[in-house]
Amino acid sequence: MSKGKLAGIIVACTIAIIAAIVLFYIKPWDRLTLSVSVNPPQAGFVFPATGKYKSGIQVTLTANPASSYTFDHWEGDASGTSPTITITMDSDKTLTANFKRQTYTLTISASPSGDGSVFPSSGQYESGAQVTLTASPASGYTFDHWSGDASGTASTITITMDSNKSLTANFKATIQTYTLTVNVSLSGAGSVSPSGGQYESGVSVTLTATPANGYTFDYWSGSASGTASTITITMDSNKSLTANFKTTSAPAQEAIPAEQLLAEYTANEIAADQKYNGKVIEVSGKIDNFGIDLDGNPLVCLYAGFLTDVVCHFDTSWESELGQLQKGQNITVQGICEGIGFINIDVNDCNLISVDGSSP
After folding, report:
1. For labelling alongside 138, which of 91, 148, 218, 307 has CA 20 to 30 A away?
2. Angle, alpha carbons 240-244-250 (nearest 5°)
3. Span 120-125, mean pLDDT?
4. Taking the CB of residue 317, how many other CB atoms lie within 10 A of it?
């Protein structure tokens, strides 16, 4: 036998021996299949993954969640909630690693407690969820601001649940305000300090009436009364006050009868205007009629002649006194003469001086 043939026989025998060892010990027909899946597919992965394993071998599997997910449980040929398990390959195995979205806790509170509410309230939300919150104040309160894991003064906000969140909706008591309106009975006769404005409920306001030269303070009317020039009122509602002034010196002449005033204007309007127009006068006469002007203020008409009256304009603070008058009564009125119009003579900013010779 040649050396070449001998070498060939040796190689063939060696291959046969190796093949016999592989078939006896490794037994490729004795391999079992491990099938691993993930639910949902993007939620994570399992290591090791699907593969072939020798019967009887133990395989340790670990479920690894993706960002924003957590491992939940195994199902199929394994169970439990631990992300790491060990199985024995005694048959083909099929396993599913189930993941779920990471959840975070949203904690909501209101301050002061009971002065408002937030919708939705505290709860669990999946990672990445956007939650729109609306703060609603209770009666007598307004929403002020958010604090904690949110900020701002808008009552409705949207937050992203990327971690546990704790927010507080802060409310404050509504401050009621009222309007103070201050009037002066005769234009230019004086002033009042303060002159009016907006005030919070319950605030005390001290008012002082100061007369101009030639005048003296007489009394308050409207939402206040009395003859003291300084008074204090409490703003528990809207208030309207009038400071009434009167001249300190006696008029240069007696009260002018309405008929005489008309006669002077009829005789020479220019001369009468120089004497009376824009000046404080006292005029007396018999009540011919009552009415309301375009501004809603009361007026009293004194008979001056055929189809002509002296029209005396009052403010609304005089409504009570004027309501007691009757046609035909003789009254004396103080006011600012505005001259003669198309028919009538107008006297503005009037005060009632006397009724039938007596004080009103």
Report:
1. 148
2. 170
3. 92
4. 21
Rounded to the nearest 5°, which phi and psi values hold at 12?
Answer: -60, -40
Cα separation values, 211 from 43, 202, 315, 359, Å: 86, 28, 19, 22
State the pLDDT at residue 213: 85
**Closest to 302 (Cα-Cα) out of 328, 278, 280, 322:** 328
Q: Where are the alpha helices (DSSP H) in 2-136?
A: 3-25
Please give the residue that has the higher pLDDT: either 1 or 216. Answer: 216
φ, ψ for residue 139, nearest 5 deg: -60, 135
Identify residue 110 by its one-letter amino acid code. Answer: A
Q: What is the C-alpha end-to-end distance of the chain, expressed in Å? A: 162
Q: How far apart are CA 106 and CA 114, in angstroms?
A: 19
Region 325-335: mean pLDDT is 94
Question: Token digits for 287?
Answer: 């009540």
* CA–CA gap between residue 334 and residue 354 (Å, rounded): 10
Strand, helix or coil for residue 30: helix
Taking 3-state DSSP, the helix, strand and coil percentages for the chain, each rounded to the nearest 5, stand at 15, 55, 30
Q: Report the C-alpha gap between 221 and 334 in whole angstroms.
A: 17
More confident residue, 290 or 173: 290
| Residue 130: CB atoms within 10 Å | 9
CA distance 217 to 220: 9
Dist CA 236 CA 203 (whole Å): 8
CA distance 48 to 34: 10
Q: What is the pTM of this model?
A: 0.43
Using a 10 angstrom Cβ sphere, with 0-12 exposed, 13-18 middle and 19 or more buried, the burial of residue 226 is exposed
